[in-house]
Design brief:
mainly alpha, 4 helices, about 0% strand
Length: about 90
């Protein structure tokens, strides 16, 4: 489990931190006072949930569980961040 997590997913921690950064960035660009509060909280919630799901296979040490979470969580999040960076530049 640890070898696979270390080899296949070195970007997980920065990816979760990026969720908070995206929420903060959206809040800065928003003119709505409510969104200035909700966007950072939403980013933090996504980061916490993603981190929880990422750590779940450590409690259930089965390769299919890890690979499923990797395919359903990490790849879409990473792709979304890449898309956002390209779109923002």
């Amino acid at each position: 489990g640890i070898l696979i997590r270390g080899v296949i997913a070195p970007f997980s921690q920065p990816l979760f931190s990026a969720m908070v950064g995206i929420g903060l960035g959206l809040a800065v660009r928003s003119g709505d006072p409510l969104k200035k509060i909700l966007y950072p909280l939403g980013g933090l919630l996504v980061a916490i949930l993603a981190h929880f799901l990422w750590n779940l296979p450590a409690a259930l040490p089965y390769l299919p569980v890890f690979l499923g979470i990797y395919v359903l969580l990490a790849i879409p999040l990473f792709g979304g961040v890449i898309w956002l960076v390209i779109r923002s530049s």
